[in-house]
Design a protein that fits this description.
mainly alpha
Amino acid sequence: MISENLSALSILCQGYLMAFATTGKPRSQKVKKALQKMGCTDMLLSKVTCPKPEKIAETHSVGFWLEPFECEILEFERALCKELGMQSLPQNHPLKQLIVSLEKGRVEEADVVAEAYLFLDRKLT
């Protein structure tokens, strides 16, 4: 059974990726693939107004990622493992890579978020 945490995390990934896409920064193949899975076309993105820089910066903060779950990073990882039926996340797992970014204090790499989103998309569909 997949529970709410994975779905909520997927939505946060989408928010981060949409904010990233509006900045005009170059998009890697991973980010392009994730945006495509989300249904975001270049035409759609051209009609989206770029949020204020401080709003985009919020998507990089640990609070953006953990506040909806009302827990700390370790508890968050445990909850994800439980939902996935795993004892722990392997170091190369896409969600582990996102957690490593959170442990560093900021989520800076769009590729990490894109990989996490693509994993979640496969898991949830």
